[in-house]
Amino acid sequence: MKKPPRNNFLAALAGLLLVLDFSYTQGSTDLQDVYAINVLYTNLGFPPLTGWVQSAGDPCGDNWQGVQCVGSNITEITLSNLNLGGQLGYGLQNFTSLIILDLQNNHIGDVIPFQLPPHLQRLLLSGNQFTGSLPYSLSTLTLLSDLLLGSNHLTGSIPDIFQDLTGLINLDFSVNNFSGQLPASLSALTSLSSLHLQNNQLSGTVDTLASLNLTDLNIEKNLFSGQIPPKLLTIPNFKYTGNQFNTSPASPASPASRSTPPPGSPPSSSRPGNVSSSAQDSQHNKSRKYLTNGRIAAIAVAGLLTAIVAVLVIMFFVMRKHEQKSALGKKYRGKGKKKKHEDKLSYQDVENELKNKPWTGPVTPISNAQDERSEEKAITLVPDVNIKPPPIEKYKVPANMSISSPAHKMAFKPPTSRPPIATTAYTVAALQQSTNSFGQENLIGEGSLGRVYRAELPDGKLLAIKKLDCLASMLEKDEDFLELVANISKLRHGNITELVGYCFEHGQRLLVYEYMSNGTLHEMLHLRDELSKKLSWNARVKTALGAARALEYLHEVFQPAVVHRNFTSINILLDDELNPHLSDCGLATLTSSVPDSQVPAHMLGYNAPEFAMSGAYTMKSDVYSFGVVMLELLTGRKPLDSSRPRPEQSLVRWAAPQLHDIDALSKMVDPALKGIYSAKSLSRFADIISLCVQPEPEFRPPMSEVVQALVRLMQRINSGRKRYEAASGSKSLEPPGSSLQE
């Protein structure tokens, strides 16, 4: 056979080497997994992990610490007991092949994110500092076999999310702050073997666990009550102390409780002194009959005595009432010499006056021990004697409530200090119906304060429902929640999202807001497609001005002043005409309760330096966050973006030094604007940003000055547009490019 030419062989070898070199330079890890793990590394705070880098890299090819791969896909991340901090943040849903996520025994905080790897089999997060409630997205992880979330700071009720998690084997929610009753869907966990719920505040019965085939169950130190189902007592490793179970013996009518000897006792035939089975049954039946007859007789005697006592008591009070009437008649007739108009007072007159005139003094029941002076004491019950009424201030009726109103008749209570609630109270049933029982298809957002659902009322009106699941423990008392609602309902401004209602039935805490059709500013800026094209330069300045006016109202107009504390592009909503509306106003008391070390992922890049250094948050911190949002409007970039080169990942660090450089500034502008803006307005916009993001709080301007500067800028833009329209003879929303001089 003829050999191939040597040159052809060398060419083939070179081609193979070229392919191998190309594969190496491209990396062996799927690019989506690389992006996801870069984001995770940033959210964890760049811990010292072998091989890990904050952008690009090859986790599978370079054997990053704790990372296991199958082919080019990351399938396992195991980083337990490594003293990690930070939070999980966003982006976990991009791990489409991840089946094991093990981060146990670290210091990772914030909430468990809603976005989770879709094919997880083992989610192990025990021994961290996670807060908030369980995300409903857990219900979609149908491949889960292990869900370990013990020893965290999770709160609220355990949601009813287990219907489709039939493959779950090990479930651990122990040592948290869960409350409420066990969800009914736990009974669907047919494969569950181990369940740990100890050291929580769970209540109600444990009947829903009776159908499970458990071998290990720990429900110690909760608030469970009722009877323990007999099946649970057969579990080999069952711990239930520290609850409020009814441990009284079972009803004597149960034949099983009589025929079954106590555990560990010898069989009846081997017990010492044992008599025959028939003799035992005969003796037991006789004693049972005797006890039954005796019990019936005792009940009959007790009932008779009770009836006699009741009759005597009734007779006593009838006689006493008769004596009081006689005494009152004498009293009134005795006054005839002094008051002529009382001469004709009859016994019936006295009785009628007693019935018609309300009693305002204390009533003391008359006992059998009273002597003959009881007749004189009874006279002190006459209404016209000198008895001081209670202070008017103590039981003052609110100005908006009439004396005859049903609320006043129902309960005469001292007024509380809580301000009035000027908004609508909705029922849970109504909100469930309008959100399809808070279904996934109606979920439009999720943050550190809870999830937001789109609701459509029967009349077609759209609302946004914020469900405060993660705050159940902080708003445990109805009064706390109602006070929060009352304070928020007083906020009235055209650029603040209006609170139109609330709900606090059945342990639920919900806030009902007006619905904004164009979503959030974050979506408009960072979800490219056609959305960012809607935001022209004029629209961006208008958005900044509206948001500034909202903060000015909170800081300098409303009394007492309100610090927002959560000012981001996510919380700026846009209506049909792209007018901005600031949301989450008045909720700072809730966000301030989160430990300073656990900054929500969506706040990364927005927080002022003083907050990062000392945890201090003031109105000037809001001003800094506002400056960051203005930078987003200017550049179209996110405040923190790990996908960019390292010097450009922090928006403020990258942009602030260039704000006064005209050439650099023009290169920073969002490409979506396509150069359609005024150079002077761009420069003035950058000047305002520079003042707001000053590192020292005292150098940042108050929001009233920011508003004035933006008003002047908007006026110049409008006047420039009018001049352009006059010169060109046509109407236009924007001047062409930066050639127009203002």
What features would you highlight for this structure?
alpha/beta; Leucine-rich repeat, LRR (right-handed beta-alpha superhelix); Phosphorylase Kinase, domain 1; 3 domains; 24 strands; 33% helix
For the record, what is the CATH homologous superfamily label of the largest domain? Ribonuclease Inhibitor
Please report which band the strand proportion falls in: under 5%, 5-15%, 15-25%, 25-35%, 35-45% or over 45%: 5-15%
Low-confidence stretches: 1-26, 250-292, 330-416, 594-598, 732-742
Q: How many E-type strands? A: 24
Q: How many structural domains in the coordinates? A: 3
CATH class group of the largest domain: Alpha Beta
Widest sheet: strand order? 1-2-3-5-7-9-11-13-15
By CATH, the topology of the largest domain is Leucine-rich repeat, LRR (right-handed beta-alpha superhelix)
Gyration radius, rounded: 38 Å
How would you summarize the topology of this molecule?
Blueprint: H1 6-26, H2 31-43, E1 67-70, E2 73-78, E3 100-102, E4 109-111, E5 122-124, E6 129-132, E7 146-148, E8 153-157, E9 170-172, E10 177-180, E11 194-196, E12 201-204, E13 216-218, E14 223-226, E15 237-239, E16 244-245, H3 255-259, H4 277-334, H5 347-356, H6 374-378, H7 406-410, E17 424-425, H8 428-434, E18 443-447, E19 450-456, E20 462-467, H9 478-489, E21 499-503, E22 510-514, H10 521-526, H11 531-534, H12 537-557, E23 572-574, E24 580-582, H13 588-591, H14 609-614, H15 619-635, H16 651-655, H17 662-668, H18 679-692, H19 703-728
Parallel strand pairs: 2-3, 3-5, 4-6, 5-7, 6-8, 7-9, 8-10, 9-11, 10-12, 11-13, 12-14, 13-15, 14-16, 17-21
Antiparallel strand pairs: 1-2, 18-19, 19-20, 20-22, 21-22, 23-24
